[in-house]
C-alpha cells in the first residue's frame, strides 16, 4: 500500500477503487497502477486504457482473482489529472482443489527439500497465489544448489484453472538428481600457506557438498589475516563422478602493513594509534606485529609474536612484550610486561578461552603514598564471548568476559594476590526501541594492598563507566588523593529511540564505584544523550549529572566506536 502511494503520488496521481472489499486486492491494484502513473497530457487514450486494464488483470490474477472485470476507468478533471477512478467487479477468488507437489527421481528424497514442500503455503482449500507458487519453485531450486544438487530441475510445473468452479489444480514435480560431493582442493603450487589453508578447511574430500561450508571456508581464510584476497569456488563443469573440485585463488598480503589512526573522547582527549604488522614471518604462518598508542594520560607500546597451532583462527600461542606509562589524576605509573598466552576456541562455539602467564614490573606512585616498585608473576585464565548483528552500528549483541588471575610470594612475586573481574554487556532491539545494559564487578584479595600496582587497582567514572564523572575519578580517597579500590561495582541501563535518519536520542542511569568494601558509597549518573550512526561507526554525545557522597557534578561525554 505504501509503495503504491509513494509511486503514484510521485507521478502526481492517486488511485480510487470502487467495488473491492478485499484490502489485499486493492493494495495490489494500486501498486501495479502506481508504476504506470498519469498519461501524457492527461488524455485517456485507447492505449492508456488498455495498459490500465492489463495492470489490473495482472494484479488480480496474482492473488487468485481470474474473473475480475474492469467496468469503468476515468481520470479526474483537474489539469494535472491527479486521481484515477476505477470501478471493478472482482468475481470469485480461485481456490486450490488439488495439489500434487513432490520430489521425483530418487528413492531417498532429500529431507531438507522435502521439508520445504511439506511447509509450502499452497494447501488444498487455500486461495491460489502466484507469488507463493513462484516462491516455492525459487526456494526449491536455490536450496538444491546450496546442497549440491547441481542437476536439479522441474520435470512438471503446471497450474490448471477451472473458471466454472473457481478452482485450481497444481502439479509440480521436482527432480533433484544426484547430490555432488566435495572434490580435490586446488591450491596454487607456489602458495606457501598450504598447511594453514588445510587447517581452516570446513569440509573433507568426499563429503556431501554444501555451499554454507564453502562460504565458511572463505570466511575462515579471510579471518586468518594472511591474505589480501581469497576466493574458494566450485568448478561444477569439471566434476568427476559427482565430485566437484574446489578452486582456491589467493593473494598474500604485502610483506609489511601499516595502519595509522586516531580518535577523541572526553575520557582521554585526542589520541593516536600506529600499528605495524608482518603477516608472514615464515612458511608456518608465524606473524609479528607492533602497536603504539599515545594520549595525554596514557602512552604504551607493545610487540606481539603469534604462532598458529592446529587451528590458526581459534588455537594459537602469542608472545607479548610491552611498555606503558600513565599520568592520570593521582596516578603516576611506569610498567614493563612480558607475557605468553594460549588461545583456545571452537568454530561452532562463541566462547573463547585464554590461559596466560604474565611477568610485570611496575613503578608507581598512587595518591600520597611513596613511590614503590612491585614485581608480579601472574598466571590466569579468561573466558569471553562476543556476539553482534547489524554492522558498524549494531542492533543486537552481547559481550561477556570473566578473568581470574593471581600471584604468590613463593614464585617471583613481591605479594600474594588474587584478582577476579566480571564484565557483561547486553544490547537488544525491540522494533525501534533499543535497550543497552552493562555491569562490571571486580575484587582483589591480597596480603598487602599498598603494594598492589596502580594498573591492577580499581577506579570508576568516565564514558564507559559512571557518566557524570571524569575518567577514573571515583575510588577511595585519602588526604584528598585517590587511592584506588579493592572492589569495583558498576551497572548501567540505557534506552534509545530513533528521531531522524541515523540519529537516536537516549536516556540513561549509571550507578557504581570503586571502593574498599563491596557496594560502598555508590555514585550515580543520570542524563540524556544522542548517537549518530556515521559512516565510520556510531558517535555518541551525553550530558550527565553525577552524584556521589562527596560531590554533585555535571559533565559532557563524547565518544566513538562500537557499543560492545
Report the principal-axis shape. extended
Largest β-sheet summary: 16 strands, antiparallel
Relative helix content? 10-25%
Low-confidence stretches: 1-12
Number of strand elements? 27
Q: How widely separated are the two ends?
A: 38 Å
- Proportion of β residues? over 45%
Question: How would you characterize this protein structure?
Answer:
Strands 10-11-12-13-14-15-16-17-18-19-20-23-24-25-26-27 form a 16-stranded antiparallel beta sheet, with no helix packed on it. It has a 3-stranded mixed beta sheet with strand order 1-3-2. The longest helix has 17 residues, at 130-146. Helix 1 (2-10) runs parallel beside helix 2 (23-36), helix 2 packs antiparallel against helix 3 (46-61) and helix 4 runs antiparallel to helix 5 (130-146). It is extended and about 100 Å long. The model is unreliable at 1-12 (pLDDT under 50). It is built from 7 helices and 27 strands. Strand 10 and strand 11 (269-278) form a beta hairpin. Helices cover 15% and strands 50% of the residues. The chain has helices at 2-10, 23-36, 46-61, 111-118, 130-146, 194-199, 211-223; strands at 14-18, 69-75, 83-89, 95-104, 153-162, 167-175, 181-186, 227-234, 243-252, 257-265, 269-278, 287-295, 298-311, 315-328, 331-346, 349-366, 372-389, 396-407, 417-430, 433-446, 477-478, 481-482, 487-500, 503-515, 523-534, 537-547, 552-560. It is mostly beta strands and 564 residues long.
Amino acid at each position: 500500500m505504501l509503495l503504491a502511494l509513494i509511486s503514484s503520488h510521485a507521478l502526481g496521481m492517486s488511485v480510487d477503487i470502487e467495488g473491492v472489499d478485499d484490502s489485499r486486492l486493492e493494495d495490489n491494484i494500486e501498486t501495479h497502477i502506481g508504476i504506470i502513473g498519469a498519461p501524457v497530457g492527461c488524455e485517456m487514450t485507447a492505449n492508456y486504457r488498455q495498459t490500465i486494464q492489463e495492470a489490473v488483470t495482472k494484479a488480480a490474477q496474482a492473488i487468485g482473482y481470474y474473473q475480475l472485470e474492469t467496468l469503468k476507468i476515468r481520470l479526474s478533471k483537474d489539469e494535472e489529472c491527479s486521481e484515477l477512478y476505477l470501478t471493478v467487479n472482482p468475481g470469485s477468488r480461485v481456490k486450490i482443489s488439488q495439489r500434487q507437489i513432490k520430489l521425483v527421481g530418487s528413492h531417498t528424497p532429500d529431507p531438507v527439500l522435502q521439508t520445504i514442500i511439506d511447509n509450502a503455503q499452497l494447501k488444498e482449500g487455500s486461495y491460489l497465489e502466484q507469488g507463493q507458487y513462484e516462491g516455492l519453485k525459487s526456494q526449491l531450486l536455490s536450496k538444491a544448489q546450496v546442497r549440491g544438487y547441481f542437476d536439479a530441475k522441474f520435470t512438471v510445473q503446471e497450474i490448471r484453472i477451472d473458471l466454472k468452479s473457481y478452482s485450481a489444480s497444481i502439479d509440480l514435480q521436482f527432480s533433484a538428481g544426484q547430490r555432488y560431493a566435495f572434490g580435490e582442493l586446488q591450491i596454487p603450487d607456489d602458495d606457501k600457506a598450504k598447511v594453514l589453508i588445510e587447517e581452516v578447511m570446513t569440509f573433507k574430500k568426499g563429503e556431501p557438498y554444501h555451499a554454507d561450508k564453502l562460504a565458511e571456508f572463505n570466511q575462515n581464510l579471510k579471518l586468518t589475516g594472511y591474505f589480501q584476497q581469497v576466493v574458494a569456488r566450485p568448478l561444477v563443469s569439471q566434476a568427476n563422478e559427482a565430485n566437484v573440485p574446489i578452486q582456491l585463488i589467493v593473494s598474500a598480503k604485502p610483506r609489511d602493513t601499516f595502519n595509522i589512526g586516531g580518535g577523541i573522547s572526553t575520557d582521554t582527549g585526542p589520541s593516536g594509534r600506529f600499528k605495524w604488522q608482518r603477516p608472514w614471518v615464515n612458511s608456518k604462518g608465524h606473524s609479528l606485529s607492533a602497536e603504539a598508542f599515545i594520549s595525554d594520560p596514557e602512552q604504551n607500546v607493545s610487540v606481539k609474536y603469534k604462532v598458529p597451532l592446529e587451528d590458526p583462527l581459534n588455537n594459537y600461542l602469542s608472545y607479548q612484550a610491552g611498555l606503558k606509562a600513565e599520568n592520570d589524576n593521582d596516578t603516576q605509573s611506569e610498567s614493563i610486561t612480558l607475557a605468553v598466552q594460549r588461545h583456545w576456541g571452537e568454530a561452532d562455539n562463541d566462547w573463547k578461552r585464554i590461559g596466560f602467564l604474565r611477568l610485570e614490573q611496575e613503578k608507581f606512585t598512587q595518591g600520597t603514598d611513596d613511590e614503590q616498585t612491585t614485581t608480579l608473576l601472574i598466571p590466569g585464565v579468561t573466558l569471553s564471548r562476543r556476539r553482534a548483528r547489524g554492522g558498524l552500528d549494531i542492533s543486537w549483541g552481547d559481550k561477556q568476559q570473566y578473568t581470574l588471575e593471581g600471584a604468590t610470594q613463593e614464585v617471583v612475586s613481591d605479594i600474594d594476590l588474587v584478582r577476579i573481574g566480571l564484565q557483561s554487556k547486553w544490547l537488544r532491539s525491540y522494533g525501534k526501541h533499543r535497550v543497552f545494559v552493562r555491569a562490571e564487578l571486580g575484587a582483589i584479595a591480597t596480603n598487602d594492598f599498598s603494594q598492589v600496582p596502580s594498573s591492577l587497582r580499581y577506579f570508576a567514572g568516565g564514558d564507559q563507566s559512571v557518566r557524570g564523572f571524569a575518567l577514573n575519578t571515583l575510588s577511595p580517597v585519602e588526604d584528598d588523593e585517590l587511592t584506588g579500590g579493592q572492589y569495583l561495582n558498576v551497572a548501567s541501563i540505557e534506552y534509545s529511540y530513533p528521531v531522524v535518519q541515523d540519529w537516536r536520542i537516549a536516556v540513561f542511569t549509571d550507578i557504581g564505584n570503586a571502593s574498599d568494601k563491596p557496594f560502598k558509597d555508590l555514585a550515580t549518573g543520570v542524563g540524556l544523550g544522542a548517537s549518530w550512526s556515521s559512516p565510520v561507526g556510531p558517535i555518541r554525545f551525553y550530558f550527565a549529572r553525577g552524584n556521589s557522597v562527596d560531590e554533585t557534578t555535571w559533565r559532557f561525554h563524547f565518544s566513538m566506536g562500537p557499543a560492545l
